Structure formats: C-alpha cells, structure tokens
Amino acid sequence: MSRKKTQSPLLIERILTGDKIAVSKAMSLIENDDPEAHSILDSIYDKTGKALRLGITGPPGVGKSTLLCELTLCIRKENEPVGIIAVDPSSYITGGALLGDRIRMQKIATDDGTFIRSMATRGNLGGLARTTFEIADLLDASGKKYILIETVGVGQSEVDIVNTCDITAVVLSPESGDSIQAMKSGLMEAADIVIINKKDRPGAEKLENELRSTFELRTGTSVRVPILKTNALLSEGIPAVLSEVKGIFSDMRKNGSLARRRRNNLKTKLCSLLQYNFLKAIKLSQKADRQMECLAEDVLCGKNTPYSDLDSLMVKFL
Amino acid sequence: MSRKKTQSPLLIERILTGDKIAVSKAMSLIENDDPEAHSILDSIYDKTGKALRLGITGPPGVGKSTLLCELTLCIRKENEPVGIIAVDPSSYITGGALLGDRIRMQKIATDDGTFIRSMATRGNLGGLARTTFEIADLLDASGKKYILIETVGVGQSEVDIVNTCDITAVVLSPESGDSIQAMKSGLMEAADIVIINKKDRPGAEKLENELRSTFELRTGTSVRVPILKTNALLSEGIPAVLSEVKGIFSDMRKNGSLARRRRNNLKTKLCSLLQYNFLKAIKLSQKADRQMECLAEDVLCGKNTPYSDLDSLMVKFL
User: Fold this and answer.
1) Which of A227, A245, A222 is nearest to A179 (CA)?
2) Do B176 and A274 count as a contact with CB atoms less than 8 A apart?
3) Per-residue pLDDT, B301
4) Is A118 at the interface with chain B, CB within 8 A?
5) Cα angle vertex A205, ends A203, A211, to 5°?
6) I need a labelling partner for A278 at 20 to 30 A (CA). Which of A310, B137, B179, B245 fits?
7) Is A98 within a domain?
8) Which residues 195-254 of B have a C-beta within 8 angstroms of A?
C-alpha cells in the first residue's frame, strides 16, 4: 500500500485511539483544506469501514435535531461511541432556542464517547459533501461505532451528502404536509427507513397510511421500507428506531447490499473528490484565473456567450 | 458573433416576445439538460442583461415567500414584468399551507406579466446553480424587468445561487435568533440589503440595533447596508423595499459596481458551467465510468485510498 509520509505520525496515532483533541485538529485541517489533511486521511483509511453511517434528513422543523440527540443518548446507553456531523447549520445554533434541545445537547457535548461537529462552513468551493465524508472517514477511523449525519432535506448538496451514508432515515412530521413534497423531491426514494416524529399530533395515522400505500405502489421494490413513529421531545419510540436501524444494517451486511451500497458510495465520493480537485484547479491556479478572465472578457465584448461551446472551453483548461 | 444553428428559430422568436408557453418549453429543455437548451441560450444571450436580478435569501420561516409575493404585486403595480425562480422547494408547495400565501400566489400565477418557476429538481449532477442562472438568463431575454430568485439561506448551493444575482436581500425575523447564525455563516457578508420581516413581533428594534452595530464594526466597508422593516403578511413596508432596491441598482449602475459584480458573477457562472461539464463527463461517459470502477476496485482491494493521489487520478480522467 503506497502511503505518503505525513508530518504527524503522533497525530495519527492519537486519532486512531479516539483522542478528541487530535480528531478536532484533523477536522480543522480537513475544513481548511490543508495539504496535510489528505495525507492523514490516506494513512487512516484502512481503519475505516467499521462504523454504521446513518443519514438523517427531512424538511425543516420536523424535529431532526431532537431525534438525533435522543438517538445518540440511546446508543450511548449501550456504551458505543458516536460521531455526529450536523450539516444543517441552523439546527444546533438557532434550533437551540428550544431549551429542551439545549439541555439534551449539553448532555451529549460533555460526554466523552460522543463527538459533535457542526458544519457551518459554506462557499468552500462546493466542497461541503467532500468535507462531510472526509470527516465521516476520520470519525470512523477514530473508533466511533455510529456516525450520524444530519442534513435538512432541502438543498441539493445536503441530499448528496445523505446519499453517501449506509442507511438513510427520512424524518417527517404529521402536520407539515411535507410528505407530498418529500415524495416529489426524490427524498423518499432514498429512504431506507421513515420516521414520523411528533406522532401525537393529528394526522400521524393518515400520513403513515399515505406513505404505506405510496411504498406499495412503487414498482420493482421488493424491499419493505419500515415506517416508525416517535415523539422525540418525550423520548418516545427511540429504542425501536435504533433497533430497526441495527436490523437493517445487519441484514444489509448479510445479503451483500451493504457492500454494494458502499461500492456505489465510494464512486460518488471519488467523483466528488475529482470534481473538487478540478474546481480548485480552475479557481485557484493563477494561470486558470487568467484564462477565466479572458473567457469572461470574450463574453463581455460579445465575441462569445457562456453557452457557446463548453467542450472547447474545457479543452482550453486542461 | 458565432452562433450555432438552433432547430427552433420560431421558439427563440417567441421567447424574445415573452411568450409564456415558449419560455416554459425552453425551461423544460434546460432542466432536462437537452442539447438544444444551450443552443437556445447561446442565441438569446445578447438579449440578456436588462433585468434586475434580486436574490432573496434567509433562514426558513422568516416569511421570504410572502415577502416575495408582496414585492411582485408591488412591481406589477408599476406594470413591469417579473420572473420568479423559487429554489427553495418547500416554500411554495408546503409553505402554501398558509391560506394567505395561496391567495397571493394565485393572484400572481394568473397574471400574464409574471412568470413563476419552482425549482424542485435535485440530484441533477450538482447542476442546481447552473440551471438557475440559465433560467434567469432565459427570463431576462424574454423581457422580464425584475428577476426574483428565492432560496433558503441554509444550503451551500442555495447561497451560491444568490451570489449570482445583482443584489442580495437577506430576510430575517426578530424572533428567530437567526441573525447570529446568519452573521456567522457569511450570509450577512453577501447582503446588499437586510429586511427584518414580521416587524411587529418583539425584538425587531433590538435586532435592528444589533445589525447596525455589526455593520459599523465591519472594517473596510464604506458601503452602507440598508436595514428595512416589513410586515409582509399585512403588506407593510413593501414599497420602501422596492424603492431601496431600485436605488441600489441605479447607484450600482452609475458607480460601475454593477458592471464589476456582473463580471465576477460571469466568472462564477463560467466556473459552474465548466464544473458541470466536467462532472457530466466523468459521470456519463462509459469510458469514464469504467475508469471510475477501476479506481473504486483499487480502493476496495486496498491498493489505493480515495485520498492517495488526486492529481494522478485527475490525469487518468483527462
């Protein structure tokens, strides 16, 4: 195996033992796109693959953060270490307006077996998906048994992120009417499990029935998508979710679908890395920047349009 | 000027006269990434640049859609045609749960001078930003004087989209506590105008004062960021917003900053188009797909890691 030499063998050693400070440091290197980040990731890559990566997505306001907190507490009762990546930047900081959530988060944040990273970064060269799965790899290598990745199921990059997980949980709430939107948007097609949170609110049964008939109508799906009901604020239904997720994971491992999915996810990741590298090349190299200036100039003086001939533009860059 | 021949000179003619059906058809071609779309965009490109492109962004629930509707009605009173691109898929479909919004939307939807496109597409090869500005170019060429682009200020791609507008309006509400998050996230740095909606709620004054002191603390900004207060549900404060936006636009035109910003936006667009083209090449070509399979295989059998050597991976692809 070809490994580049890293400057920090000690840092790597500490990451692999789950040292919080070392993991934090490596995360900052990843987020800052420090050249050392890739050499660290390269070195620890063969220690990844042990964690269950669960994507938790859904429309804003359905209670994803609360559910994620409760799920974490539930996993921690079994003494398994958990890594949390919150890609929705609004959830922890403004969502923290709910006192209950704050208390929950504090309980988690001070726990040594849990690592929380809130991804508030943006505008970083379209690299949010990249950063997220790199951080997931880091948490995985650091010994976390569960990696929970929360995204609001609205933006495209957020959905892309969830699609790099082993299992995707879509969270809905009865009142929101978001189920229709979720189905239209393709979010439901990615769902391995659906959680109806706020189950005490009117319409929970109706939503469940709607979802069941939709899933039944799907042609060509032999896989049953479980629908579970929770009330995360009251900690109701959480152990059932965890047990279902574990069951799905274990089935996927046995029937080979986990390996297939991870292979596909790997291709997605490689694409994402290549794309990021390409974008970095066209945005950050001085030569490319000059060429971009020339292209822009051609458009501004009417010699060309941005739509003229993308293929020949590409050739100019490569 | 080199123009590729398009199959639909009639379609182009109809687009340029603002024919709704022709514009819709072209939008579908763009969204489906039909090869004809680029030849149409190429042909109409020299008719673009006349519209004022206003990006409207902010956290979920602050009332962006309502504000956008009211602003549209306000512009329509002056008889100017308006194009609306709603990138936040949840806003029009589920946000329509508010009866008031539905009535507003209907009023707009049946108006011949207004064109509304809701971008519910996702997962389309990272092309949401691309599709949005292509549709904005189309609306611009079709004679719309204002193009309003609404995105929820959460996802990265959404923020990228707003950054291709002439003017960015950030909408906040007093109660949400989102202002801190908005400032942290870099959303405020993009703001040309801040709108505090739901101004009758407690905390509006406080939020305004906080924002003013934050803006004053910014080093190196000679530009004053106006802060306006509205109550979109009661149609209060909307004409002032429109007048402020017009004033900013007119100032930007006079002092040359509009040309500078559009030049920068153009570079962003070109990058986005190139990136999209690159991604399409690595995702859709059979040869690239086989190569990606080989790369994935090398990683799976431990010969390589995804982080080994991106530059040499790049070379393999190009």
Assistant:
1) A227
2) no
3) 84
4) no
5) 100
6) B137
7) yes
8) none
| Judgement on whether residues A27 and A89 belong to the same structural domain of the protein | no
pLDDT number for residue B97: 33
Q: Which of A158-162, B72-76, B162-166 has the lowest mean pLDDT?
A: A158-162
Among chain A residues, CA nearest to B120: A185
Instruction: Kindly state whether B178 is in contact with chain A, defined as any CB-CB distance less than 8 angstroms.
Output: yes
The answer to whether B169 and B195 are in contact (CB under 8 A) is: yes
User: For residue B149, what are the β-bridge partners?
Assistant: B55, B85
Report the residue from B88, B271, B306 with minimal CB separation from A266.
B306
Q: Per mean pLDDT, which range of A127-136, A248-257, B183-192, B299-308 is the poorest?
A: B183-192
* % residues pLDDT > 90 (chain B): 37
Residue span of the structural domain in which B305 resides: 285-317
Asked whether residue A128 falls in the same domain as residue A77, the answer is yes
Q: Is A5 on the interface with B (CB under 8 A)?
A: no
Residues B28 and B63 in one domain: no
Sign of CA dihedral A118, A123, A128, A131: negative
As a whole number of angstroms, the distance between CA B78 and CA B72 comes to 10
A177 contacts on B by Cβ (under 8 Å): 94, 97
Q: Is residue B234 part of a domain?
A: yes
H or E stretch at A85: strand A82-86
Nearest to B120 among A184, A293, A296 (CB): A184
* Helix (H) or strand (E) segment spanning residue B59: none
**A253-262, B94-103, B123-132, B136-145: least confidently modelled range:** B94-103
As for how many domains chain B has, the answer is 3
Tens digits of per-residue pLDDT, A281-301?
Answer: 776 677 777 877 888 888 888
pLDDT average, residue stretch B78-99 = 63
The verdict on a CB contact (< 8 Å) between A94 and B178 is yes
List the single residue in B with minimal CA-CA distance to A1.
B303
For chain B, the average pLDDT equals 80
Average pLDDT, chain A: 80
Nearest CA in chain A to B265: A296
Task: List the single residue in A292, A300, A318 with the smallest CB-CB distance to B318.
Answer: A318
Interchain CB distance below 8 Å, B154 and A45: no
Q: Is position A276 within any domain?
A: no
Cβ atoms of B227 and B194 closer than 8 Å: yes
Place of tokens 């990249």: A130
Residue B6 has pLDDT above 70, yes or no: no
pLDDT at A86: 82
Q: Do A41 and B307 touch (CB under 8 A)?
A: yes
